[in-house]
Amino acid sequence: MPNKLLDVVMKFNLLFLAIISGVTSSHASAETGADTKIRIGEIIEVTGHSKKQLSPEVVGSVDVIGRDQLENEHVNITMDLFKKVPGVYFSRFNQGVVSADIAIRGFNGEGSLPHTKLLIDGVPSNLHNGLSEMDALFPLEISQVEVVKGTNDPRYGLHNLAGNYHMTSRRDVDVNQVELLLGSFNTKEAQAYVSRESGDFSQHYFAGVRQTDGYRDQAELDKHTFSGKWFYQASENTEIGVIARYFNYDAQAPGYLTREEARKNPEQSAEYASDDEGTKTTKHLSLHVDHNFSDDNALSLKIYRQQFERERFVRFTASASQQERQEDEKQWGVIVQHGYQINDEWLMQSGFDYHAQDNRHQRFKTVNKKRTAATRDHDFEFINYGAFTQIEHKFSDKLTWIAGVRADKFDGDFVDVISTSKRDIHDYDVIVQPKFSVIAEPNEQVTFFANWGESFQTGIGKGAYAAPGTNFDVSKNTGWEFGTKWQPTSELTLRLSSWQQDASDELVMKTDGSGDFGNIGETERKGWDFAFQWSATKNTYVWGSYTDQQAKLTEPGGNQQLQKGSWLRSVPDYTASFGIDHYLTSNLKGSVYGSYQGNSHISDTNTYGKFGQYSLIDLALDYQADWGNIGLRISNLFDRYYEYVYLLGEEAIYSPGDGRAINVSWSYQF
């Protein structure tokens, strides 16, 4: 066992023994059942509200976090809910409206290389640059979170380089719920979910607001959201629904510190960043239609229109000028998926999607938030057409194979308003992506799986459009995974897999502020994943995961041969998570969660050191009554220092993570 994994396991086991030894003397008679389980270690998961929709199946590392594990969480940023998901790691900027991003499979979470598709209720929810925008969802509104890792999922093209995240909002009608919270740093939160059903018509409403002063100085946050969902069962075979959502987020930014400042006093803000702040808004409207022509023939249709707006004032160092960054992105599209069960052995799925963006990105030099000069004004249209088909064949009771292919095409144009220059999108032609998976089940306890597929990456912003006399091809990723899922008993599930992704002509955003992209050459990402879930007793549920990974530049482009073999920046060498849910009494549950992340290089040359390692423990107590819940949560229980570090030119800048926080919540169901 690697030393770093052994260290993580030993630390967690000591904490486990301490917690359990303190509570086993209490009376415990509750049946934990499925209420406390995280579906970690899934191999096949069907996405959608209904199995009869015949949605495409995905073979590989699929993990699901259910509402029972989410609704009592309380976070400033929704991404923090992903810390329980195997293989997911964080870049925590902690800078107001740009607070964090998450990543998988050896890619970094800094937005320089879009690699993961986000969908909310089946609708794409990435910004143009690939960053995931999910803060409009509060924990109480989320039904489940599903993460699919790898290159073999044919359903999505754009941003689906290493996998996808799918978040589903609540549509249950049996519970109405109100929740209030008070916590550290003057944190206040209120959430409410109300639903009504009358005959074939159901209504679902959610409202949430959160305010906090933040751990660091000048880190105030104020966000609120409202959503409505209306669904009508027009017939036994047809359901029609509309989802609308509005979200607003205002936040200050405490700025970056020097190494000495951050470690001496992590709660301070940078004096030069006293005017840094920002706001972001999401407006969403979508139509959802599901129709079953028969039990073996189903169609799903989604039509959506949404707008993401961001305004941010930022100053990275004392020697830098303040900037104002404005982004206005309008998106609309159509998604159609069809499933046809030919017979007991053959299933065919296919789909088509159209996604269009009308974007305006502007930047200004400012002094005390007053504009002095325009430095960027990009107005561009970005259009993606995609289609897929997939055949699943149950060859025998013990062997199933799935083969599919996806094709994508892009269109659009770009105008630099300041220089009045124009560009057309790079001529990528049709991007064909074959996929293949196989599942072998020699017995009821053991499953072997393997998958192979191609995915792609395009440039974004200015980098997606060709300057006169130039043209870039897409970057192709070829990936594979093989592994096993083993259930030695009905209480224990384990999954172990090995994976690799190789990229040609990888594109990375330049750091010169131009908005353009550069080709860094060929890269290799590989690693192995382990995940388990264990119902140790009728009152105790344990889960955990560990991912070891490498990400290297194998063949640099141009004159960068000295970087050959270098680790890619901002990719931690491991990530892990562990958790225990234990019922102390029939109504009182105690939970301990640990999240761990390794160091990563902050430069492509690997000459500026490695940073970012952390080991964080959270503790939760929940008293469940017939009328609702009273909860206590302590995040970063041992008040451990951790930090995000970024290399800006030749200077490393530091953003400390949050210290210990305590909050108390009260939830009432009616």
What is the topological layout?
Layout: H1 3-23, E1 39-46, E2 57-66, E3 89-95, E4 98-103, E5 116-120, E6 123-124, E7 142-149, E8 163-169, E9 177-183, E10 187-198, E11 201-212, E12 221-233, E13 238-252, H2 259-264, E14 277-294, E15 297-314, E16 322-341, E17 346-367, E18 370-396, E19 399-416, E20 421-425, E21 431-440, E22 446-457, E23 465-466, E24 475-489, E25 492-509, E26 517-537, E27 540-556, E28 574-583, E29 588-597, E30 600-601, E31 610-611, E32 614-625, E33 628-635, E34 643-648, E35 651-656, E36 661-669
Parallel strand pairs: 5-8
Antiparallel strand pairs: 1-2, 2-7, 3-4, 5-6, 7-8, 9-10, 9-36, 10-11, 11-12, 12-13, 13-14, 14-15, 15-16, 16-17, 17-18, 18-19, 19-20, 19-21, 20-23, 21-22, 22-24, 24-25, 25-26, 26-27, 27-28, 28-29, 29-32, 30-31, 32-33, 33-36, 34-35
GO cellular component, one term: cell outer membrane
Protein name: TonB-dependent receptor
Pfam families: Plug (PF07715), TonB_dep_Rec_b-barrel (PF00593)
Write a structural description:
One of its GO terms (molecular function) is siderophore uptake transmembrane transporter activity. It is found in: Cell outer membrane. Residues 246-637 form the TonB-dependent receptor-like beta-barrel domain. Residues 1-30 form the signal peptide. This protein has 670 residues and is mainly β. The chain has one domain: Maltoporin, Chain A (Beta Barrel), CATH 2.40.170. It has 2 helices and 36 strands. The strands form 5 sheets. It has a 22-stranded antiparallel β-barrel. The protein has a 6-stranded mixed beta sheet with strand order 1-2-7-8-5-6, with no helix packed on it. It is globular, with a radius of gyration of 24 Å. It starts with a helix and ends with a strand.
